[in-house]
Specification:
The protein has 307 residues and is α+β, with helices and mostly antiparallel strands. It has one domain. The protein contains six helices and 18 strands. The strands form three sheets. Strands 1, 2, 3, 13, 14, 15, 16, 17 and 18 form a nine-stranded antiparallel sheet that branches. It has a six-stranded antiparallel sheet with strand order 5-6-11-9-8-12. Strands 4-7-10 form a three-stranded mixed sheet. Helix 1 runs antiparallel to helix 2 and helix 4 runs antiparallel to helix 5.
Amino acid sequence: MTNALLADITSLKPGAPMTHGGITLIPIFAPEGRGARIKIAGDELVVSELETPTVPQLQVHNPTADDVLIPAGKILSGGRQTRVVNVSIVVPAGATLVIPVSCVEAGRWSGLSRFSDSRRFASRRVREAKARSVKRNIDIRKDKSSAQGAVWNVISHELNMRGVESDDSLLLDVDQHLDHRSDRVDVVREFISRGVQAGQIGVAVAHGEKILGVEVFPNTEALTVAWEGIVRAAVIDADEFSSRPESIDAARGIAALEKFLSEVAATEGTLSDGVGRGTEVHVETPAYVAHGLRVDGELVYCNAFAS
């Protein structure tokens, strides 16, 4: 048990909060000298079912000359069913790995072997349920699978609360539903147009002064690649709240984020060898769940989600 892998998140620098449509995003900037040159995996990563397909595992091959990062929570679309990645993985150049995943499409087990990059992330509730069960399985069995039933239950809730009909219980149908809601699409467009700021490597999502989630990437370019998916997930997640605060006090918002990061950094976690390069840490309390990946001494990715 250790908290060392997440200790340096307290050196991250929050910026001025931005609020639109009841959603607050707080930019997070790198301290001087930080910035791993790792790219986010896209469609250059070859993702496929195993030779004998199985729900909780996929195969990935990196044909490029660079290491690439698959962030935990990334949705991979296609195959016999759409999956979400359980833990963050740095796939070395030229490597082929078997990775742990969870199903986010309960009603389908058919189709081709290959996958595509959906450019989407699972909702906060799905990621929280997945991360909590992965942490427990690592502690008990040294296994990075999730409690698939718990993930499916959250997806059913996400679909039902919005009245979204999905024959295959596909989480991505919630994202597609967003495109038919003009007021919410306007919020997405606003945040996308503001974009990622120079030196920004992460973002916190808040409702009022309550921090809901934090995501930190290896560099500004990686965050930029993930930005649309993060924004869309944040707008979707806001449906759980009936109120839509117009703004928050900047100083209090930043203080809330600094307090959240300090609490996560101080919490003991479980270490695990990375699926690819590096070392993972998994942290869980009743109030939040967090996950990080360190490679060559640097925290290249972390997330934390409040309950």
